[in-house]
TrEMBL record:
Molecular-function annotations in GO: ATP binding; ATP hydrolysis activity
InterPro entries on file: AAA+_ATPase, ABC_transp_ATP-bind, ABC_transporter-like_ATP-bd, ABC_transporter-like_CS, Oligopep_ABC_C, P-loop_NTPase
Family: Belongs to the ABC transporter superfamily.
Keywords associated with the record: ATP-binding, Nucleotide-binding, Transport
One Pfam family this sequence matches: oligo_HPY
UniProt protein name: ATP-binding cassette domain-containing protein
Native source organism of the sequence: Paenibacillus lautus
Sequence ranges assigned to domain ABC transporter in this UniProt record: 10-262
A GO BP annotation: transmembrane transport
Domain of life the protein comes from: Bacteria
CDD domains for this protein: ABC_NikE_OppD_transporters
SMART domains, A to Z: AAA (SM00382)
Amino acid sequence: MEQAADRSILKVSSLHKQFPVYGSFGKLGGAKAYVNAVTDVSLQLNEGETYGLVGESGSGKSTTGRTILGLTPASQGQVLYRDRELAAMTREEMRNFRKDVQLVFQDPFSSLNPRKRIGRMLEEPLIIHKMGDKAERQETVFRILQTVGLQPEHAFRFPHEFSGGQRQRLGLARALIMNPKIIVCDEPVSALDVSIQSQILNMLKRLQREMKLTLLFITHDISVVRYISDRIGIMYLGKIMEEALTDDLFHEPLHPYTKALFSAVPDFNRSRLKERIMLRGEIPSPISPPSGCVFHTRCPYATDVCRTDIPAVREVRPGHKVACHLVD
């Protein structure tokens, strides 16, 4: 598959996100430290593709997705949607952005209002954006329920009456009802059984083709991201370590962290890996990240330059980028 840069719909440039840590007196005493959740992340989404964002828990994947959506403001950097900077959008432009870019949460039950019937929840964004009259909105709700594999009568039930897989379908229906251009999927299948995971993933791929969707798929599951993604970015401690087309990345991973992740997958073809890398220790604290390459404290190949100099993200092959001093 060829990478088409001219199809870009969303660009992220040098994105940073810090969260203040306050002491006993809260905000009155000022910030004592900062959590560096996202550091200098740059990526691009092309129309109609699925970009997989992979990494351990605490690597900054979800924060990156929420910052791209504008749910949390960026500390530094740019998010461009159709060449329009998110921070500079007018109120009307932001309303259109909210319609075009939707989010599917990891835990569908906590994101559904237990006091409201499903039909009312799905209809609410249509009311806010003044789309259609009551009969037209109800017809849209019934149609979107059928689109995600549910029945129109499910509109009259409450969230607790559904299984976990059905609730995730409802979360997807809520994202799709605005006919978006981009959907950010934040660990959408991690809490589901394997058989239900495959149903949701196949449905996502089908809907992507039918509705011409662009997906940012956030996960820690290597097998899932391999199945659904066109391109993959590997994150560690708030940074992009490696990025490539899916086939290229799995054919020959270059960064030691990527190789370590692949080594942990039981069914991965390890003949492509010259040796297995076993990660030792825990991911460092984002409050005081290591100097130089943030992965050097766990990397078996780390040298002196890795401990002092921050590696730049370089394109070492067409479409294949890596942030490592040891990769030519």
